[in-house]
């Protein structure tokens, strides 16, 4: 059996594996959830800027140079970093384990 046909057989077995469909579905659902969270916060901030700019310009305390807008942006920066860390942790843990299992099963069946 040539290398190309062997690879094709492995890929075909991977695509037929029900765990592969589950992996794709779970990964897509998780990515969609995180995307919705990010876009909601991001565009929500811009809606506040557009429709209530006075709120963004308010200082956090008397005499402070830090405004609500700066604090909100700092929060968003840290929050988005946190979401990225959550995604990486899950991708490197749960998703990689399932992927390894699927590839291992497909390679066994071909040999």
Automatic annotation (TrEMBL):
One of its GO terms (cellular component) is plasma membrane. The keyword ATP-binding does not apply. The chain crosses the membrane at residues 29-51, 63-88. The keyword Transmembrane applies. It comes from the Bacteria. InterPro entries: DUF485, Inner_membrane_assoc. Keywords: Membrane, Transmembrane, Transmembrane helix. Pfam families: DUF485. This is DUF485 domain-containing protein.
